[in-house]
Design brief:
Distance between the termini: 47 Å
Strand content: under 5%
Shape: globular
Number of strands: 0
Length: about 450
């Protein structure tokens, strides 16, 4: 009898990446939908429930910078499973919370796990697959990073209306436990440098800097740009980050390897993705509110018309390998970002009862955002060597999280500044379209090679 074949460790990386990142992305949008129900059950005003999101975002942002060092020092498998396990445990605690304080604390723990888990998962994925094979990963990359946020409102609306908000956290448990066992058995360990020293000064500046910036952006989304908390925490956070840049560029072994931005493809790919996610999350947040508050749709109808966004993302992932070979990265990214900008602006053409038009625009939005985001991950890491992948993944995730929060914050700021009414929502959609247009212009400088370039000296670290 032939020996039983062992599962491919590279396939195990894909499975664990999708499971972890999908849960992380799904939770963010499910919780947003569930906040009114959470406030009602705990007997607190809607403004108080914002702590559930703020605690998560701040802890997530504060822990991202340390993820690269942890993975390189202790091994990506060990660190990923530990962070993923903490995320799953925190999900169970969220579902069991007896009051708002317990729920907020559990969400903080979720943020710690998610902040470390996301960059390490991306590091494992890109170390397992060389640059020339990464375009085939688009089917994997697009699922957790883009489809999950689109599916979240639909699932969240269903759970809140037909079960309870606690199911939004409890659904993580069976998938999470299965993925943890799978990863423990099949993932391969990779330790980059056991003797890598810890940059205490870098962490002391990065953690509060990113945490305060995320708090400021969330404050804008909740209370508007006139909030003193926004300006005070934002200024303090930016001050920490300015000092961080200065110290990291002078350090021989920094926590955040900012010198990687010297690689043109990594810099451009990261910056364009920043504009892409800012526009995408801005419209996801703004359209959800507009369709219900101004166009008279129910939460369930809103979830249904945003669902085609996920289908658009999946269609794009199936066509991306062909488009990459045929068009090349420059034309593909520029066209996708221009299409995204157009679809964001077309959301202003939707009127009351236009369910089919809304679904079609969401489908187009998902398609173009999916094509751009998946290709940009390939572009950004095309010249990053294995030794620098952990540091690059950390920077990449910092920009993704800040871009997402900035998109929501700017949309909320526009709505607060222009006051109630459909005109404010239309202005917010155009601002999001503006983000995508900036990305389209930047894409004109992306390298046009269909074959990933050789790893550069800065990428090899």
């Amino acid at each position: 009898m032939p020996a039983k074949r062992r599962a491919d460790p590279r396939s195990a990386v894909c499975v664990c990446y999708v499971a972890a990142m999908f849960m992380n992305g799904m939770d963010a949008t499910i919780v947003t939908v569930a906040l009114p129900a959470i406030g009602a059950e705990f007997g607190v005003p809607p403004s108080a429930t914002s702590a559930v999101n703020v605690g998560y975002l701040v802890s997530l942002a504060a822990c991202i910078p340390i993820s690269g060092w942890l993975g390189d020092r202790f091994g990506t498998k060990r660190v990923f499973l530990g962070a993923f396990g903490l995320f799953v445990l925190a999900s169970a605690l969220c579902g069991l919370a007896a009051d708002l304080a317990q729920l907020t604390l559990a969400r903080v723990l979720q943020g710690v796990g998610g902040g470390v888990m996301s960059p390490v998962a991306l590091t494992m994925l890109f170390r397992a697959y060389p640059p020339q094979e990464r375009i085939r990963l688009t089917r994997v990359l697009v699922l957790p990073t883009a489809v999950a946020p689109a599916l979240g409102p639909v699932l969240g609306g269903f759970l809140v209306e037909h079960l309870t908000w606690r199911w939004g956290f409890s659904v993580n448990l069976p998938v999470g436990v299965a993925a943890l066992l799978f990863g423990a058995l099949l993932l391969a360990e990779h330790v980059e440098s056991r003797g890598k020293p810890f940059d205490l000064l870098g962490f002391a500046l990065a953690a509060p800097g990113l945490g305060l910036v995320m708090y400021a952006l969330e404050a804008v989304a909740q209370t508007g740009p006139a909030s003193p908390h926004c300006w005070a925490s934002g200024a303090a956070g930016l001050g920490c980050l300015a000092a961080l840049v200065r110290t990291q560029l002078r350090s021989a072994l920094p926590m955040l390897e900012l010198r990687l931005f010297g690689d043109p493809e990594f810099r451009r790919g990261s910056l364009i993705l920043f504009t892409c996610v800012a526009g995408f999350l801005g419209t996801l947040y703004g359209f959800t509110l507009m369709f219900q508050s101004e166009l008279g749709a129910s939460a369930w109808e809103t979830g249904l018309v945003t669902l085609p966004k996920a289908f658009g993302l999946m269609i794009a992932s199936q066509l991306l390998a062909w488009a990459h070979r045929t068009l090349g990265p420059r034309v593909l990214v520029a066209t996708a970002m221009l299409g995204a900008a157009t679809s964001f602006a077309l959301m202003n053409a939707i009127g009351p009862g236009d369910l089919w038009l809304a679904a079609g625009v969401q489908l187009a939005s998902g398609f173009f955002v999916g094509a751009a985001s998946a290709e940009l991950q390939v572009v950004a890491f095309a010249t990053i060597g294995s030794a620098a992948t952990g540091a690059a993944a950390t920077l990449f995730n910092v920009q993704r999280q800040v871009g997402s929060a900035l998109g929501v914050a700017i949309t909320a700021g526009v709505l607060a500044g222009l006051g109630p009414g459909l005109g404010a929502y239309h202005a917010a959609m155009l601002v999001s379209a503006g983000f995508a247009l900036v990305g389209a212009v930047l894409a004109l400088r992306v390298g046009d090679s269909r074959v990933p370039a050789r790893q550069t000296a800065v990428a090899r670290g």
